[in-house]
Design a protein that fits this description.
By secondary structure, this protein is of the alpha/beta class. 30% of the residues lie in helices and 19% in strands. It is elongated.
Length: 227
């Protein structure tokens, strides 16, 4: 999978080189490129925003600068992801869908967002006929300083589903949210006693059927407690 991320703070995306993502890139399973939006500016201040039409607080990111940046990177069959608090809520189903794609292109907005004509332009039939899809995505009902953190959340959730990225692919099967309404059971490791708290005795029994039953019940209780 190829992933491109456009931001005015490319250094913010440095963690994409670490841990599993870094190893996956070393193995050739992923190609992640981070791009500085400001290279497409032409003024001395490298400004990427301007005041909003109609008035109001804040600044809006310019369509022309984003268009120039996206034109350089967008490819046939690409999925363009615009990070915005007003977008569709990201979940595990979306992560599974995006994990099958060949090219993801992330547009990390800032300030009051990206001029909506960018979304409109790349949603036209001229692009959809090339297999290009535009997604407006939010990672939750809150506002961040920009799309960088949101893009990293989505990239990590998506790429760990790609075969070969995780060292033990079986670990995906029992993870939280892998099926509707499912969360993972509590986990424990050595020692069996820590600060007067005991590991549930059933987990020490070696009775795999009983352990599976306990884990299922514990996962269900955790889901109910978090409602």
């Amino acid at each position: 999978m190829k992933i491109d991320v456009i931001s005015i703070f490319p250094e913010y995306l440095a963690p994409l080189e670490l841990s599993l993502l870094g190893k996956a890139q070393d193995k050739g399973l992923l190609e992640i490129n981070v791009h500085d939006l400001r290279v497409h500016t032409s003024d001395n201040h490298h400004s990427v925003d301007d005041t909003p039409y109609g008035g109001g607080a804040g600044m809006v990111m310019k369509a022309q600068i984003w268009g120039d940046a996206l034109d350089d990177l967008i490819t046939d069959g690409c999925d363009l992801i615009i990070l915005t608090p007003g977008g569709r809520r990201f979940n595990q189903r979306m992560a599974e869908e995006l994990s099958t794609k060949s090219h993801l292109l992330f547009a990390c907005g800032r300030y009051e967002g990206i001029d909506d004509r960018v979304r409109q332009h790349y949603s036209t039939t001229a692009y959809s006929d090339r297999g290009i899809r535009v997604h407006e995505i939010s990672i939750g009902d809150y506002v961040l300083g920009g799309g960088e953190v949101a893009s990293m959340v989505i990239i990590e959730a998506v790429t760990r589903l790609i075969p070969g990225v995780l060292g033990n692919p079986e670990s995906i099967v029992e993870e939280s949210h892998m099926s509707e309404g499912f969360v993972e059971y509590p986990s424990f490791t050595k020692p069996a006693t820590w600060r007067d708290l005991e590991v549930p005795e059933i987990l020490l029994s070696g009775n795999h059927a009983a352990i599976a039953k306990w884990r299922s019940e514990a996962a269900h209780k955790r889901a109910q407690d978090n409602l």
